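Holo model, zinc ion. Inputs:
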Amino acid sequence: MKFCSNCGAPVTLKIPPGDSLPRHVCDACNAIHYQNPRLIVGCIPEWEDRILLCRRAIEPRYGLWTVPAGFMENGETTAQGAVRETLEEANARVEVASLYAIYNIPHINQVYMLFRARLLDIDFHPGAETLEARLFTEREVPWEEIAFLSVRNTLDHYYADRRGGEFKFHLGTIERPRPGGRAS
Ligand SMILES: [Zn+2]
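Output:
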């Protein structure tokens, strides 16, 4: 951030009185511009033994598969956000069930919140940000073409839970991938 969104004057990165972290502070109007993590909400849409995945028509990770998810908007609940994203990305209608996973991704200042959801029908088709929307059984899931580690981890847990007969809530943290190393 270079300029104040309040008055347009330059900002300086400094620790405001009583605070503990550097913030962008306006040199003219003294507005403090806090930056906080962003919440990504989505769901695993289920239909019998299959789940709905979307192939991304946008960067990052163009052409790879993910569950319907996106940035939460002001004025909506997390579950409403998951329903909206599923409608936008796959024109699919879902009823949200339980919260399934939360992933902290501190190095990119994001938190993922994913629900299990029931598809109300299978009359879906790709939205503007989606190349293809499809139902997959576990064996059909394109494991090597999953867009995000958070989604890959969630689906790993999902199928392990399903085999175990019980869906448990998962809380995890995804660390910055090491250069040249494989992220875990
Ligand atoms: Zn200002």
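The longest helix spans residues 149-164. The chain has a mean pLDDT of 95.
Archived with the compound record.
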